[in-house]
Amino acid sequence: MAFLEAFPEATATQLAMATAVQFIENHLHADIKVADMAMAVHYSLFHFCRIFNQVTHHPPYDYLVRRRLTEAAHRLADGARVTEVALDCQFGSPEAFSRAFKRLFGLLPSQWQKSGWIDPRCFMTPLTPTHLTHRSHAASVRPQVVERPSRTLTGLMTAVDEEATAVSALWRQMRECLGDALAQQPAWAVCHYLPHYPQTGVYYLAAVESAANIAFPPVLVNKTMPSGLYACFPLPASVAARQLLNDYIYQTWLPQSRYQLSYPLEVLAFTGWTVEPVSATLEIPIRPV
Q1: In the Cβ-directed half-sphere of 2, how many Cα atoms lie within 13 Å?
Q2: Residues 100/69, Cβ–Cβ less than 8 Å
Q3: Chosen CATH of 2-122 out of 3.60.21.10, 1.10.10.60, 2.30.40.10, 3.30.160.390
Q4: Which CATH number fits domain 141-288: 3.20.80.10, 1.10.357.10, 3.40.190.150, 3.40.630.30?
Q5: Of the candidates 59, 60, 118, 68, the residue with the CA atom closest to the CA atom of residue 96
Q6: Mean pLDDT computed over 179-200
Q7: What is the pLDDT confidence band of residue 224, given thresholds at 50, 70 and 90?
Q8: How far apart are CA 203 and CA 53, in angstroms?
Q9: What is the model's pLDDT at position 2?
Q10: Reduced to 3 states, what is the DSSP secondary structure of residue 231?
């Protein structure tokens, strides 16, 4: 109960579904059915399935399987045997487990253990009441899919850690390089996620759009953004809200859409900037599956 009381902004329905999520977490390795989840929150089976899907954006069983496979990936990375993990996660056989694992993550459990890599953004994190409140705002989670031409950006690039401590300094350097006049135009940031990026860092480009009539300082680099489809989301102001949006994009929206990532990039389009950029749209390059 104390867990739920920590989220006063959540509605009664969201708290009920958060209770169901907590029930799932407590029984990840047990032989539970969707009817058991419904019973835990005193809903009829039909009503529970409809409301759970509406609030979490996942059917109950789909969410259960994604959580089990995420936990399975962590255990396999720690050296657990495939057969043991498959049975603990309530799959009928190692073969069924392997098929489900590959369907979600794109590689077999044995490949993941040997030398594979899974983007950690794709792991299904337990949904909290804060996640559910965020997902209730349609404008925050419903992207606009647009066709973008290629764009050449000019700016400074560096590797940043998970805390992005170098980003503010990078934008200050950009302002020093470009001067006040150029600082009034729209700005761009590009995050390039290479394999194993949690260990190597993310490459971050702070940039403006290139212009033929402007002589940019030689210290700046040019990068061409690929043309194609982009899913565009309004970027929240707070770091916590941005994490909620990322969880939604990579764990829910993208797997359920008819798209996949076309490049390991995130593009932030800012309307302007002073010391740092403000008011941004997050753009994800995608292609049809």
Answers
A1: 0
A2: yes
A3: 1.10.10.60
A4: 3.20.80.10
A5: 68
A6: 79
A7: very high
A8: 36
A9: 42
A10: strand
